[in-house]
Write a structure and sequence with these properties.
Blueprint: E1 3-11, E2 17-24, E3 29-33, H1 40-55, H2 63-73, H3 80-101, H4 105-108, E4 117-125, H5 128-141, E5 146-150, E6 177-178, E7 184-186, H6 189-207, E8 213-216, H7 223-233, E9 240-242, H8 252-259, E10 264-266, H9 277-281, E11 287-288, H10 297-309, E12 314-317, H11 325-337, E13 343-345, H12 351-356, E14 357-359, E15 362-364, E16 367-369, E17 378-380, H13 382-386, E18 393-394, E19 397-399, E20 405-406
Bound molecules: (2S,3R,4R)-2,3,4,5-tetrahydroxy-N-oxo-pentanamide and cobalt (II) ion.
(2S,3R,4R)-2,3,4,5-tetrahydroxy-N-oxo-pentanamide binds near residues 218 and 268.
Length: about 400
């Protein structure tokens, strides 16, 4: 089944998305997500200039061969741009294969291993009252596991906490801002370490012992600081503490592990199975945070999660709004099929995004399901996509009080 067309579509409903649309000779269309937050056009160019010409005439059914060809023939391996571009191709080909088979993708991955996919949402607040409102709002929306992020006294803008509210309702947190330059935020690790345990104490007091709670330290701590935070949070029984140290420093986790039993999750900025060699083999983490989109697609993330499974490390697939509905759906099919599923992050997309990407997944009482439509279950409305041209948007960055650039 020959590939006869491949097209890169950049659209910006609510935020920027890069989509690869592959068409076969018998008219089957597959979609792949190539969205890399704040660097969208580099992946669009990688695909349009260097990958699309290689795809034309290839057999759409040869997914593994195409993956290996794109990975090895470039010579320059790994890295977020390359692996996101390969993911876009891989996911589009899986979408095509599943549509050709007339089955939802999870059937081709071995079939469902569970009835639904447990999802967590993002509660946040600038103070305790706002945070409690946000947790309640998420419970009303159907979430049964909740990530808690909070402002820190003395710091103006903190990761995971929107600057404004509307009508007392929590905005869903969207980190990228449409602007020609990245926003500058400030950071004080000491104030953060003193404040966060008091917030979890309050949340446990209000919502009880049973609610699974998560927290993201977003790469900001040194190993010994992370060890202290993990230990200080032990009384509040977290589902996980995410990205406690910068993810590329695999060795750092040894020290953290020696000091705390708080479960650790890492990996949204990692791209390949190689980035997890030490983390998984030495059992330094409990959850893999990679997305399908940034890790070379379904083919590569499946391989990574199968490796992790041998060490009882589970999945925690990244699902922020900067993964498009196409990449999100691909993650849901994997979640349903693999044995070592842990939890799925779910940050609902905006209304405009849902107009451009028609989706079949469902959510209720804590669980997501990708639906039973053939393929991924996502269709792109190209007319709607065309109404939202690319707009420059960037993630913020951090400076300490003395002006030093810090991890964001
Ligand atoms: O900051 O997706 O766990 N989720 C996260 C996200 C990331 C953004 C970066 O593009 O850390 O909010
Ligand atoms: Co994160």
């Amino acid at each position: 089944m020959k590939i006869v067309a491949a097209e890169v579509i950049v659209t910006s409903p609510d935020r920027n998305f890069v989509t690869l649309k592959i068409t076969t000779e018998d008219g089957i269309v597959g979609l792949g997500d190539g969205t890399l937050n704040g660097r969208e056009l580099s992946v669009a160019s990688y695909l349009a200039d260097h990958v699309v010409p290689l795809l034309l005439g290839r057999d759409a059914h040869q997914i593994e061969d195409t993956w290996q060809f794109l990975y090895r023939s470039a010579y320059w391996r790994r890295g977020p741009v390359t692996m996101t571009a390969i993911a876009a191709v891989d996911v589009a080909l899986w979408d095509i294969k599943a549509k050709a088979a007339g089955m939802p993708l999870y059937q081709l991955l071995g079939g469902a291993s569970r009835t639904g996919v447990m999802a967590y949402g993002h509660a946040s607040g600038r103070d305790t009252e706002e945070l409690f409102d946000s947790v309640r709002h998420h419970l009303e929306e159907g979430f049964r596991s909740i990530r808690v992020q909070t402002s820190v006294p003395g710091i103006d803008a903190v990761y995971g906490v929107p600057a404004t509210r509307s009508a007392g309702r929590a905005h869903h947190y969207e980190p990228a801002q449409r602007a020609p330059l990245p926003a500058e935020e400030d950071w004080d690790t000491g104030a953060y370490l003193r404040h966060v345990p008091t917030v979890f104490e309050a949340v446990r007091g209000e919502f009880g012992a049973d609610l699974p709670l998560l927290h993201d330290a977003h790469h900001r701590l040194t190993p010994i600081q992370a060890a202290r935070l993990g230990r200080d949070l032990e009384p509040y029984d977290l589902f996980w503490l995410e990205d406690c140290t910068p993810a590329e420093n695999q060795d750092a986790l040894r020290l953290v592990r020696q000091h705390t039993t708080t479960p650790l999750a890492i990996g949204e900025v990692l791209n390949t199975v190689w980035d997890y060699q030490t983390l998984v083999r030495e059992q330094l983490i409990d959850y893999v945070r990679s997305s399908v989109t940034h890790t070379g697609g379904v083919t590569a993330l499946r391989r990574l999660l199968d490796f992790a499974a041998q060490y009882q490390v589970k999945s925690g697939i990244h699902g922020p709004t900067d993964i498009s509905p196409v990449g999100f759906a691909a993650g849901l099919h994997l979640d349903l099929a693999i044995h070592n599923f842990g939890i799925q992050e779910y940050m609902p997309h905006g209304a405009l995004t849902n107009e451009v990407f028609r989706q079949t997944f469902t959510f209720g009482d804590g669980y997501l399901h990708p639906g039973t439509a053939p393929g991924l279950g996502v269709e792109l409305d190209e007319e709607a996509a065309g109404r939202f041209p690319y707009q420059p948007a960037y993630l913020p960055f951090n400076r300490l009080k003395d002006g030093t650039v810090h991890d964001w």
